[in-house]
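Quick one - inputs below.
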Amino acid sequence: MLKLPGLIDPHVHLREPGQTHKEDWDSGTSAALAGGVTVLLAMPNTRPPIFDAATLNLALAAAKAKARCDYAQFLGAGPGNAEWGRHKALPLRAAGLKMYLDSTFGELRLDDMTLWQQHFQTWPRDLPIVAHSESRSMAAVILMAAIYDRPVHIAHISLKEEVLLIKAAKEKGIKVTCEVCPHHLFLTKDDIPPSPLHPSPNGRGDGGEGRLSVRPRLATKEDVDVLWANLDVIDCFATDHAPHTLAEKDGENPPPGFPGVETMLPLLFTAVSDGRLTIDQIIEKSVINPRKIFSLPKQPETWVEVDENARYELHAADLHSRCGWTPFEGWQVRGRVRRVTLRGREAFKDGRALVKPGYGRNVRE
Ligand code: NCD
Ligand code: ZN
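Output:
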């Protein structure tokens, strides 16, 4: 049995408040523990979105009552809330500021670059900003980080041009960090099956992706190969756990997003067994770097026991997420989480969360 520190997942969508038929703080944090994740950072594109003190309180009340692992909650950058500087108390209570600069699920999107500037000027420099920015908007946000001389963390990179741009920016000394999701490392757009309900005329065009719709979109084999070849440029693994029910995913307008918080560890351990990754790299990108980038406290008496030789198939029926499916259904994987100890308590063992809802702590408190 291999003993790892508890993993940190800096990018998780828990759907509460507002869409608890997809997930809530209980099911999502149970899923996290099953994946060896002991701290998660929750995204703000809920209903309502989390963008001020009242909505932050709403999310944190649900978390306090229901979370089984430790957590923090992001605030979302909106058109009318760039007044952060005057109320540093609020930013200090959040995981960080999330800026949505490209289209995705939810209402939070900033098109106007003068709003980006306002947020870069007013969000406290020592607290994290995470940008959902793809391709050219990523280039723009990296320029803004350089102009305002503050760090920015780029969410879920997926393209060759993105990892190469970040590499070049880091070489120039710009304070940029980034994360990659398992689905962008293990799937390509060729894995999207043709679907009569959702014909996909142009590959990366809008819609037409059915169940495998996700933002950023799945990319080409060349993109995936270049991500693997540049793992040293990538600071963190993040799941972008974005649960939507099977009925929604297979319906008329499938919302983008994959569940992932339970399947990341076995996928990464499979890569270790294939000789493409090392356990040290998993610890670096899932513990050490996210802890530093997001200023997270060490969790005392916290570890994950992994049977690294276990060989089994992934099935949605065995997972804890409420969404009821996984893009990795039937995949042969290595590495099973046997037990999670969180702050001295046995929190998960052999498929079951053992700590009660509410055991999880807000790491910003
Ligand atoms: C996310 C969601 O469903 O909330 N969807 C996705 O495809 N990744 C939103 C996001 O992270 O962009
Ligand atoms: Zn996301």
